[in-house]
Amino acid sequence: MKIYIVSGLGADFKVLERLEFPKHCELIFIDWLIPEENEPFHTYVERMAEKVDPSEPFCLLGYSFGGIMIQEINRLKPAEKVVILGSIKSDKEKSRFIKTGEVTKIPRILPVGLFNVKAANVYAVLRKLFDPKNPRLLQYFRVRDPYYLKWSVEKVSEWKFEENPEVIQILGDKDIVFPIKNSKPDYVIKGGTHLFPATKAKEVSKILNEIFSEKTVMLLSE
Known about the structure:
By secondary structure, this protein is an alpha/beta fold. It has a single domain, classed as Rossmann fold (3-Layer(aba) Sandwich). It has ten helices and six strands; from the N terminus they run ββαβαβαααααββααα. The protein has a six-stranded parallel beta sheet, sandwiched between helices. Strand 3, helix 2 and strand 4 (81-85) form a beta-alpha-beta unit. The longest helix is centred in the C-terminal third of the chain and has 13 residues, at 146-158. The model is unreliable at 101-107 (pLDDT under 50).
C-alpha cells in the first residue's frame, strides 16, 4: 500500500523521520511546490496532486498544513484512508488566533519582505513557544521561500472545508497551533505539542501501525 505524505508549513520531512510504518507500506513524500504568483488554491492543489497515482489503492497522510493539503487532494483523488497529524478536519476547528487572521485579512496584506530569510528565522524561533524544550526545532523548518510562506499563512487562515468523518485525526493535547478543545480527535497524544510526530514518535508509530496494519490494507483492497 502506497502512502503519500505531505509535511507541515515550512517543514521538510525531518519532523516525521522517526515515525515507523508497517513494512508493507511504501512511503512517497510530496514536496511543497512554490506557488505561482496569484495562483488560485485549487490550481495549486491540482499541481500537488499530480504525484498521486490513482490507478491503484493508496492512502494519504499529512502533518499540520500538510493535513489540510491532503484533505484537498482527497477530493480530487479519493484515498482508502486519510490520516492527519496535528491538523484540523474543518475550518470550524481553527484556533481563535487563526480565525482572527481570517476575519481581519491581515495575512493577505502583510508584505512578502516580512517573510524573508531573516524574518523566517525569527518566525522559526517563535515556534519555540509551541515546544520550548525541543533543541532541534529550527532543523524542522527549512522551506523558507518568502512568497511560499506568506501564501501558506494566507491559505491556512482562509481555508473553508466541511468535515469528512472518515478522516482519521491524531492531535497532541498540548498543541497550541490547533488546540484539542476545538476538535474531537480519534487519537490523543498526551503531552504532545505541535511537534509530537518528532517528540512522541514511538506512541504515534504504534497508532500508525494499527491504522495501516496489513489486515486493514487487505480489507481495503477487497
